[in-house]
């Protein structure tokens, strides 16, 4: 598949676009576009990249992203193995800043919505009760026509603007410094790491993948990803560890080695540095939140 980092949804005759996705896997290319985007995962698991945020995703994941914020929902490896039992489903809503007119969000009554749109430039993860409400509304959007569609989208944005259970994803210092010319190189780096994170990854090898010297690659990667390459690898490994902890099929020691760590002490240290919790505490919190 030819990697494309900048793309836009197909244009429709309506003021915004709603797409229902039914595919073997989600688009595997990191990309950005000028539209705002709401993306609801109905089925599928993997690793989610929003700007410089890297997290595990599963069914129910709901994220609101602003214009030109690079993003990717990378399905787990099993979805690329042509297994008919492994399919992904999702609903994506695209709209541009002027979908209701050039000055609509500049009106005094739209202050909260304008603030929401500004926050979306860092990506917003929607959780809790707000996610339950919005999941219902987003599923309904595809069945509506005419003015009803506009009303429901505005209700979604109004609910988001008032919500307290949303998390900002990208760091405050993240800016999109990617250019279309960066696409092949960064796509190759992403693909290599996501394929090999369970093994030892040397800087020399990944720099060769990017066709750069190790020192030049380190500078290049940090300038664009807002983090070091090794931090990037660690976040992918810990994201995978979170998925395995949630599944509760493996012991912590097994998960440590499954995620590419050589020692349990290093795994525990990296896990707490990234999540703020120990692996067992993370697992208990997830179990508790899903049974409360």
Automatic annotation (TrEMBL):
Q: Which Gene3D superfamilies match?
A: Homeodomain-like, Jelly Rolls
Report any Pfam family annotated for this entry.
Answer: Cupin_2
Q: Which stretches are annotated as coiled coil?
A: none
- A GO MF label: sequence-specific DNA binding
Give the matching CDD domains. cupin_MtlR-like_N
Q: Where in this chain does the record put each HTH araC/xylS-type domain? A: 187-285
InterPro entries named among the record's database cross-references: Cupin_2 (IPR013096), Homeodomain-like_sf (IPR009057), HTH_AraC (IPR018060), HTH_AraC-typ_CS (IPR018062), RmlC-like_jellyroll (IPR014710), RmlC_Cupin_sf (IPR011051)
Q: Which PANTHER family match?
A: ARAC-FAMILY TRANSCRIPTIONAL REGULATOR, TRANSCRIPTIONAL REGULATOR MTLR
Question: What name has this protein been given in UniProt?
Answer: AraC family transcriptional regulator
């Amino acid at each position: 598949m030819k990697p494309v980092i900048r793309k836009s949804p197909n244009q429709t005759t309506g003021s915004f676009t709603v797409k229902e996705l039914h595919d073997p896997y989600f688009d595997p290319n990191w990309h950005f576009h000028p539209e705002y985007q709401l993306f609801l995962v109905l089925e599928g698991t993997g690793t989610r990249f929003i700007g410089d945020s890297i997290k595990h995703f599963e069914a129910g994941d709901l994220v609101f992203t602003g214009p030109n914020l690079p993003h990717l929902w990378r399905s787990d490896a099993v979805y690329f193995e042509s297994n008919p039992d492994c399919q992904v489903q999702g609903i994506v809503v695209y709209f541009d800043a002027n979908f209701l007119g050039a000055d609509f969000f500049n009106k005094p009554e739209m202050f909260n919505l304008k603030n929401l749109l500004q926050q979306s430039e860092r990506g917003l993860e929607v959780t809790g009760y707000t996610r339950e409400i919005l999941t219902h509304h987003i599923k309904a959007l595809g069945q509506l026509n005419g003015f009803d569609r506009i009303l429901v989208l505005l209700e979604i944005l109004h609910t988001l603007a008032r919500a307290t259970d949303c998390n900002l994803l990208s760091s405050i210092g993240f800016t999109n410094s990617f250019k279309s010319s960066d696409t092949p190189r960064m796509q190759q780096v992403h693909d290599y790491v996501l394929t090999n994170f369970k093994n030892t990854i040397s800087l020399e090898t990944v720099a060769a993948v990017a066709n750069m010297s190790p020192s030049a690659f380190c500078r290049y990667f940090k300038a664009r990803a807002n983090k070091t390459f090794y931090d990037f690898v660690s976040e992918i490994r810990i994201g995978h560890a979170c998925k395995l902890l949630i599944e509760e099929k493996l012991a912590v020691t097994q998960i440590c080695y499954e995620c590419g760590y050589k020692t349990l002490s290093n795994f525990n240290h990296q896990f707490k540095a990234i999540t703020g919790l120990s692996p067992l505490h993370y697992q208990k919190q997830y179990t508790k939140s899903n049974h409360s």
